[in-house]
Amino acid sequence: MPSKQRKKPSTTPSLVFYGSAIYDFLSPFRKAQNQWAARYIVVIFAIIIRLAIGFGSYSGMGVAPMFGDFEAQRHWLEITQHLPLKDWYWYDLQYWGLDYPPLTAYHSLVLGKVGSWVHYEWFALDASRGFESEGLKSFMRFTVIISEVLIYMPAVFKFTRYNGKQIKQSPIDQTIVACAILFQPSLMIIDHGHFQYNTVMLGLTLMAIVHLLNDNYMLASIFFVLSLGFKQMALYYSPIFFFYLLGRCCDFKSSNVSFFARFNIFRLSLIAISTVLTFAVLFGPLVLFGNMANLLQSIHRIFPFQRGIFEDKVANFWCFSNIFIKYRTLFEQQQLQFISLLATLAGLLPAAIYIFFKPQKSLLPWALAVCSMSFFMFSFQVHEKTILVPLLPITLLYSTNETDIIALVAWISNIALFSLWPLLKKDGLMLQYAVLLLLPNWVMGNLSFLTPKFLPKFLTPGPSISLVSKDQKERHGLPSNWIWSLIILTSYTAVAVIHLLDFYVPPPQRYPDLWVLANVSLSFGCFGLFWLWLYYKMFTLPTTEY
Amino acid sequence: MSSTGSSSSHSPSKARKRTNKQLKSALKKPTNSSIPTESDKPSSRTFSLWNIWVASTLLKTLLFPTYHSTDLEVHRNWLAITSTLPISKWYIENTSIWTLDYPPLFAYFEWLLTWFIPGDVVQDGILQIVKEGQGTYGLKTIVFLRITVIISEILLFVVMQWFVNIQAGVRRKTFAFIVASSVVLSPGLLIVDHIHFQYNGMLFGLMMLMIVFVQLDQSYWLALTFSVLLCFKHINLYLAPAVFVYLLRRECLDWESLKTGRVSRAVRWVNLFKLGAIVVVVFGLSFAPFIYHGVIPNVISRLFPFSRGLTHAYWAPNVWAIYSFNDKVLTSVLKVSHINKLASKFLIYIPSVENIVERLANGANNGTKGLVQDVQFTILPDITPRVCFLLTLFYDILSVVPLIVQPNFKRFVGALTLNAYASFLFGWHVHEKAIMLIIFPFTFLVNERRILKCFMVLVGAGYVSLFPLLPGQNLLKWLYTFIWFIIYFVSFMEVSKTHADSFSVRVFLFDRVALIYLIGLIPMVLMVFFMDVFKEKFEVLQKFEFVGLMIYSVYCATGVISSWVGLSWLYFFDDSIWEEEK
């Protein structure tokens, strides 16, 4: 990384997080032999915060007759254990029919069996529809947490460890980066507040990324297919995985090699075999215990092309430009699908081609971020929650020594949380939203300028940081480039204004969604700028050895 | 912070050992160049609780919507009483059974809070005087009350920060910072104040302020703070012996003239008068309106209700928990007629089987089965309030004797801790929440390894014994307590001194046993949890519905009592720990 020379003399470890609260907390454990304690402290506090978020309401709490995502997940735990496999994708589709790939169903089956063993009424077939109790809520929340602890968290630590070593970060900084990734507010509030199992899909993808970094191509493809088999949203990453793996099987550098010798056919076939086999294992039971029609039905359920170009209000290109151009009146459904496909491809192809010709490990998070962001902005049928998919590779960018990158990533993750506001407001998660707007920023040291300088000295000897000298404390959440600083400050001001309007001013009768549209427009603007910045950074990223 | 303390304390001794200078410099070089240490910039070290406050406040905010006990309604009712009724009616009003039963200053505090209630919270129904359980208040009221807890707790943070600031030298500051952070982050406060709902944080702030004043050698301020604290919550009366003796010895007795036999000159009457005046003025001012309205008898009867039983519904982990448990065991053993006959041959008084059955039918010793006004034991002699009082007083007097000889900071805090212990272990109708009254002063003493062991056993048992207060929130309370325990175990280990004689360290209090005990808390908690979860599934478990609570109190009582024995031993028989540090 180019910034490393200008930062500090080489004798000191990188000090990117020196001013942050989390550094303050973890510095007593920064000795090598106490690092385990630091890691466990991060993990346990991450779980504690998730539990505390979980005390809030969930999607569709007490809203009969359809309830919300919580009921959907509970319903799948119910049907998968009571119905034979061949009925899973057919049973009463009007009431939260299963519309995720089979691994979700298997996951639900296991959890459902455990849950029924604890308390039968929670998942009794049909009788349990809309069942709500404290016990059930605790159990469901617990399943999300345990899935995350087993799948997502180890992957995060593996990634930060590997990447941290490559960019020569001190162990304490690696732990802090892991903490920053784990305290991604949008993911926390959607999984543990709204209720979903996104961390399973994201964790499997992250596992695949870690295996790519370790050159385990087969394992990487297996994990990625598992991720796809859990939620089809992992498709947003697939072009990069495909072209990266393909690029790894081709050799463009060495000269004097014959055309065929440039291709590592053996590696390619191994990757292909492992991919196909994993797919077969995942989807096989659907055919084995049912028939071909069952498989087709599952695919039909997974890719609902009959739905609209976007759902509710989402901060992507279509929803934003729909304010001015009413697509649904101008075009047919088929045409819209085609246009959005073209736009998505145009958005992601530069990144895909670039990673094909330059399959470099340090490029992976950038390319994945660009690609999934393109999908989010231009593809068909996007939910607001889908922002979590691009957010995973974006938050991985925290693993860097450049404070500018950290500042921008922190900014976009705030904006992402803001873009979820209408959804969270509907769920009744306002309090959790407010806390999560502050907590990760403050943990990362973006709010260190808020330390109480106005209080008398005897109350606060020295501002926030216990062990750090004054000049190293000043790290605000802003990059060094003033244009970016201006953009960020403007967007934050706009966020504040929109919130104030939303809170105090009822929208005009003619436009009941006015504040939501303002939210969408602002978020889309920020996402667009960030997407361009990602492209710019990716193309200018220096060639590194790993 | 902890690591710096230990490295600075160990390095001189290590340096002395290394006589070979060359070796020393050769060893030093690479370590110095690779990692910068804090000692390079000593001026930069500041110890601030600011970050901790922000972090814990954010966590506490997330806890707003979770479970709260009836204590929330109690305090809501008090808000309603103090805001709507004239002051003369405060201690007479009894529409709800949650009557005002704290001393006047707390009532004034509630009254002060009513100034800040926003209009829509009043609309929400926060100020209704209704029968218990019939209030129609909603989330807004809860949020308002929870915020008042968080704000009033700032006092504790400020006092602890002050305690850190007055320490001289990095080593002492490091230790003080660990003490301060462990107190403000205490799982007890999180469970009792921010989930269960009470205002302990503020009250403990006052108590810590007393300790700060002792450290600063400000006896009059100590007297003032203690009187104020008493007028906030009279349970602190249990601490009076230590405070009283300390003030008497420190300010009012002339030790030298007493030694030389001139008893007439031994009492400094002026100081005694001043201290007395402070106490009288504080009490007078706080009780004045009630004296004026002539309702003092009502106030007193509210403050000291004698109609409660020996143990609470859930036995607090004290001596009486073990006592009740033994009674239960003896009952079930002696119900077997053969054993009964056999035993009656050797022992003087054994009730017959019929007698036991009859007593059981009358509802003797069913302590953990719900609220009981008066506990009767089946086999063992019954306990009267007088017995409790005498036992407490006996250990109180015992614990202040060394304070007379050596009236310094450590002895004072030690006596305070032992007073709290005595009241907790032998008191009448003790609440498990009172365990924090022991833990908080105890924290100030933990700079020695052997004390650390007693402390860890106490906090392990004490905080775990608070778990049954909450019906759910299991994983949160477990994990928070667990990680708190690990963090402060590691931190205190690094800053506490080892005793010179390493053999005695090993033998003392059987450290291995203590470790096994602490680890045993985990399966104990899990077992009781699973018994509770599966009680609807397996009917066998329903018969043991109250066994879980009994396991909790007996297991925790063992820990609390053994930590008390350990501390008492050190307090009475090891003088080296209690000398003032230079």
UniProtKB/TrEMBL annotation, chain A:
It is a multi-pass membrane protein. Its main location: endoplasmic reticulum. Pathway: Protein modification; protein glycosylation. InterPro entries: Glyco_trans_ALG6/ALG8. GO terms for cellular component: endoplasmic reticulum membrane. It is found in: Endoplasmic reticulum membrane. Its EC number is 2.4.1.-. It is an enzyme of class 2 (transferase). This is Alpha-1,3-glucosyltransferase. One of its GO terms (molecular function) is dolichyl pyrophosphate Man9GlcNAc2 alpha-1,3-glucosyltransferase activity. The chain crosses the membrane at residues 37-58, 139-159, 195-213, 219-247, 268-288, 336-356, 363-382, 405-424, 431-450, 482-502, 514-536. Belongs to the ALG6/ALG8 glucosyltransferase family. Coiled coil: none annotated.
From TrEMBL, chain B:
One of its GO terms (molecular function) is dolichyl pyrophosphate Glc1Man9GlcNAc2 alpha-1,3-glucosyltransferase activity. It is an enzyme of class 2 (transferase). Its EC number is 2.4.1.-. GO terms for biological process: protein N-linked glycosylation. Residues 1-12 have a biased composition (Low complexity). Its main location: endoplasmic reticulum. Belongs to the ALG6/ALG8 glucosyltransferase family. This is Alpha-1,3-glucosyltransferase.
